[in-house]
Amino acid sequence: MPKKLVSLTLNGKQHDGVAPDNMLLLDYLREGLGLTGTKTGCDGGECGACTILVDGRAQLACLTLVAQVAGKSVETVEGLSSNGQLSDVQAGFHEKLGSQCGACTPGFVMATEALLRANTNPTDDDIRNALGSNICRCTGYIKIFDAVHHAAALRREEDPAPYPTVADQAA
Amino acid sequence: MDALHSFEVIRPKTVDEALAARIAHRHSRMIGGGTDLLVNIRRRIETPSVLIDTSDLTDLKTIEHGDTGLSIGASVRLFEVAEHPNIQHFYPAIAQAAGSIAGPTHRNMGTVGGNLCLDTRCIYYNQSEWWREANDHCLKTELGDMCHVAPKSKGVCFATYSGDLAPALMLFGAEIDLLGPDGERTVAMRDFYIGSSRQDGSKGDGINYMAIKPGEFVVRVRASSPGRLISGYDKIRIRRSIEYPVAGCAAALTRDDDTLTDIRIAFTGTNPRPVFLEGTADLAGSTLSDSVLEGIDNLCKDQLMSMKTTFTPGHYRRRVATQMAKRLVGQLFNAAG
């Protein structure tokens, strides 16, 4: 299979590479560029672990060909942190324990990033709708809701709600 | 999954270029979002030699709404239909159907043309190559010669049509504009889907489910003005956030005082075609009584033909579809009052 030149914007920087037409974006990111933050999950569009942003909207890298994103802007989880500092979404997932085994987390983080760019004050329903394509088998989702609310507060530059204590929960 | 077979991707900038590519490559497939096609390619269900990416066709990315009706280009993404204020207001069934397709990430990718042409589905078909091989393949792939759902079907495939937009669009007498080597032509949506699986003696089934000629592709779909119709869409699925329908139902009606003056119902996920329920006109003319609901029951029993093509049994899906239709009609009738 002959390779073709591919130009795209990757995490804000111009990227020129070569890839055959039958190469999936997921394989290109992980194996071609070593950007293994984007995870391979179900490999069939059912789990959301490979969620990335294409032109600012959440898409699945496992069902996208490299040739389809030529000329577009692709963002992966590697593009979020800067100078070793977690982004607000990553900090939210870290602070509220929104991640356990971590396999689904980059996908959730990217889907959350897309949500917060459109809506910095999401309700539980907004979150449920925006993260509907992602599956987590560890957290039971409760902590992911907390993480997104925390991240949204950080994005609004407000003090996030403190962690409820056992006494708070009893009350 | 396995590595993908070799193919070429063409990204035409104009509709004319797309048509030229389509004519030049007989075994090409159009790819919009790829959320269905790429899964099938990864499972080696399909091995097209050329994929024609429609994402640069700006002419096919417009939604137009006017007094005469609605026109949606084939490359419009599904989230755009779901979020369009005029579609939400005048054609709620279409917006709700678009908003219920798969999950939010898929709706960012998937296109209207792709959803209309969604491949029919079956548990014996949407499987990996080794799974299908171990099961001696099936009718719908080139290698098999038996339908595992209906072993005595004598060459008829019962794979189920699962697109959500088609039943909602059918309520408004939608037509599909196709472009091909012989130019542009328009087909009424009810004639476009031909997968009757010999229910009416015609040829179409789960394999030949669209009246589309070689080299043709969908350019847009048009729906007529809703007039006073109020409409809605409902869908049952195993996972509510992301799944093909166990059954989907679109309904529209008009109500004058207490009289049901028009009633239209269409289904997906039950037959190898989206089913526009025939004979509902006879149910109009009175209030929404038990006899109307019984009438819907009887029409569904007659026209819905769900088989064991998904994880849920066929008779269950038919009952779910019928129940959903009655519930939706009740809700719309109350909302119109």
Helix content of chain A: 25-40%
Q: Assembly type of the shown chains?
A: heterodimer
Which pair of protein chains has the largest interface, and what are the residue counts?
A-B, 31 and 29 residues
The gross shape of chain B turns out to be globular
Tally of separate helices of chain B = 12
Round the mean pLDDT of chain A to the nearest integer and report it: 92
What strand line-up does the widest sheet of chain B have?
4-5-8-6-7
* Amount of beta strand of chain B: 15-25%
CATH architectural group of the largest domain in chain A: Roll
Biggest β-sheet of chain A, characterized?
5 strands, mixed
> Largest beta sheet of chain B, briefly?
5 strands, antiparallel
List keywords for this structure.
heterodimer, A: alpha+beta, Ubiquitin-like (UB roll), 2 domains, 7 helices, 5 strands, elongated, B: 337 residues, alpha+beta, 5-stranded antiparallel β-sheet, 12 helices, 12 strands
